[in-house]
């Protein structure tokens, strides 16, 4: 496990090591950033030949869309840029979205089958990650914001 977040660790391979790596970029906290991030990550994972079936790739993109949407909708006033990190190796794909808002969502602590009037997107993130055999969580940053992450095992396409 990653000692910082409880997420499964990536092997630490640099982005230039072939098919595995870690990629980071930022986007403004605006609505059109969501499809931009989704398409950019989809293209990245295909270009890098990430070992994901079509169903697992769909789950990854669904999670990423939910996490970026939450940052855009709930953190834009305190965030000039949303940080996105995608990493994968032979065993895991890990998605992280960082923003400047200190609120740590509670929906990740709730059971996915509970009925809530809000936070359903994060419940979907949790259910998708757990169903795949992965995990998700939230952690504070040193600057007072948060990182919401999800890690899923890769599979052979």
TrEMBL record:
Gene3D superfamilies per record: Histidine kinase-like ATPase, C-terminal domain
Keyword Coiled coil belongs to the record: no
InterPro entries: Anti-sigma-factor_SerPK, HATPase_C_sf, HATPase_dom
GO molecular function annotations of the record: ATP binding
Domain named Histidine kinase/HSP90-like ATPase: residues: 33-129
Pfam families (alphabetical): HATPase_c_2
Keywords per UniProt: ATP-binding, Kinase, Nucleotide-binding, Serine/threonine-protein kinase, Transferase
Name of the protein in its database record: ATP-binding protein
Organism: Streptomyces millisiae
């Amino acid at each position: 496990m990653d000692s910082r977040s409880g997420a499964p660790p990536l092997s630490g391979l640099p982005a230039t090591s072939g098919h595995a790596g870690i990629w980071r970029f930022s986007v403004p906290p605006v609505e059109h950033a969501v499809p931009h991030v989704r398409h950019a990550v989809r293209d990245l994972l295909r270009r890098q030949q990430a070992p994901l079936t079509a169903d697992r790739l769909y789950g990854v993109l669904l999670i990423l869309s939910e996490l970026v949407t939450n940052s855009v909708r709930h953190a834009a006033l305190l965030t000039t840029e949303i940080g996105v990190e995608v990493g994968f190796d032979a065993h895991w794909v890990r998605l992280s979205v960082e923003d400047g808002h200190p609120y740590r969502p509670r929906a990740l602590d709730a059971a996915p089958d509970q009925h809530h009037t809000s936070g359903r997107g994060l419940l979907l993130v949790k259910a998708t990650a757990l169903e795949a055999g992965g995990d998700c969580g939230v952690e504070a940053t040193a600057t007072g914001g948060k990182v919401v992450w999800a890690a899923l095992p890769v599979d052979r396409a």
